[in-house]
Design goal:
By secondary structure, the chain is mainly alpha-helical. 62% of the residues lie in helices and 11% in strands.
């Protein structure tokens, strides 16, 4: 049945003068890129591209880091900012990815943007739009016929239609998973996906957001957050963040805790906690934590806390109310607590490293044992083969000697007979 369907598809393509996919039942790479390029041109004509080189370069750098680890390297990725106040992002086939300026205003940090862009890269890496078009090939062909498409133009229209129709929930879940693992592999805050998913759900609950792109067919908020938390647990991300009923978010590792209870503007306490916890995780990937690398930059009404060149947390005067006189002194107290975390983190990392080393040694020992067993088996089989070969040769030699003996006896008898 499938062959008949593909034959009909091919026949319709020929009848209407459309170049069929190079592989039966699949859109070729060239067609995918052409679809994406034309859709990208449409988006840029519709919205315009933000004329800010530094911003475009920043978004492209984030995107390229994620593209480098996504597992699909046969295409060239492009990342641009569209001049629209809409809070959204789109991934066109072939690696053309767009972030709307309104999204950057709503999620200004690299961490948040990495979560969004990682999700969009996941759609491209798994070819979700292309697969969607292929699953609806008859609808696509009808569109091609209706538009008189030539040289793939019908497929381009189908790509645009599929893009704005949105993804299935299965594809959205897949993009979330890809986005999480790619942000971690690229060295971004592992809580990035959790922050962006939560903030987008906040916006959707307020009636904001479009009905396509980031807001198309996403799973239920609780289900989505639960799934991302599962990924965090599987990856063993520490410190962890615990959300309390009173709104306070607790960052914890072992007996060490750090509480954040203040919302700052639209940034909830839990998001600030995710930012800090994830930044600490990024810091420890560089090696043992050095307590002396924690520093404070006091700006009066607020203060930044860094670990080396990694920004960990910004605290404000309202964080300090009832605790210390101002943001600067509160940041100093926070830094003291973070320095107390350092030996705990280093100890736990050493335990993990030792456990990983032991597990690797065990794996190598098991592989060596398996190899030795296989070698012993092969040696035994070779020994059997050689013994069998020896016996066969011995038997053959014995037979030859016996035949020679009989031939001599016969010759001797005949000689005696002639002599007589």
């Amino acid at each position: 049945m499938k062959r008949i369907f593909l034959a009909l598809v091919f026949a319709l393509c020929v009848v209407f003068g459309i170049t069929p996919p190079t592989h039966a039942g699949m859109i070729s790479l060239e067609q995918e890129i052409e679809m994406g390029r034309e859709t990208a041109n449409y988006l840029e004509a519709q919205y315009g591209v933000v004329q800010d080189y530094a911003l475009q370069e920043r978004i492209n750098n984030i995107g390229q880091r994620l593209a480098a680890v996504c597992g699909r390297n046969e295409i060239t990725y492009s990342f641009k900012v569209l001049n629209s106040n809409e809070v959204n992002a789109l991934a066109c086939p072939g690696g053309f990815i767009y972030v709307f300026k309104g999204l950057i205003d709503y999620m200004p940090s690299d961490t948040e943007l990495a979560g969004v862009i990682g999700h969009e890269v996941g759609h491209v890496a798994k070819k979700h739009t292309v697969n969607s078009i292929e699953k609806q090939m008859w609808t696509t062909l009808a569109l091609i016929v209706a538009t008189g498409g030539r040289g793939g133009m019908g497929l381009i229209g189908a790509a645009q239609q599929a893009l704005f129709a949105g993804y299935s929930r299965t594809d959205e879940r897949g993009a979330d998973k890809e986005g999480f693992y790619n942000t971690v592999k690229a060295g971004f805050n592992p809580y990035a996906m959790l922050i962006t998913a939560s903030k987008l759900e906040d916006l959707a609950a307020q009636g904001g957001g479009a009905n396509y792109g980031l807001f198309s067919s996403h799973p239920e908020p609780e289900e989505r957050v639960k799934r991302i938390n599962k990924y965090l647990k599987e990856y063993d991300i520490t410190p962890m963040v615990v959300l309390n009923e009173n709104g306070v978010a607790t960052i914890t590792e072992g007996d060490w805790t750090f509480n954040i209870g203040q919302d700052i503007g639209s940034t909830k306490a839990e998001y600030r906690a995710y930012m800090l916890a994830g930044s600490l995780w990024v810091a420890r990937q560089r090696g043992p934590i050095n307590p002396d690398y924690f520093v404070v930059y006091d700006n009066g009404s607020y203060a930044h806390i860094y670990y080396d060149d990694i920004q960990l947390l910004t605290v404000y005067n309202q964080d300090a109310v009832g605790i210390t006189p101002d943001a600067g002194s509160y940041a100093a107290a926070c830094t003291k607590m973070l320095r107390e975390w350092a030996p705990i983190a280093n100890y736990n990392d050493k335990l993990k490293k030792d456990a990983a080393f032991a597990a690797e040694q065990k794996r190598l020992a098991e592989e060596q044992k398996k190899l030795e067993k296989e070698q012993a088996k092969k040696a035994k089989e070779e020994q059997k083969r050689l013994e069998k070969e020896r016996k066969a040769k011995e038997k053959a030699e014995k037979k030859r000697l016996e035949e020679e003996r009989k031939a001599r006896e016969k010759a001797e008898k005949e000689a005696k007979k002639k002599a007589a």
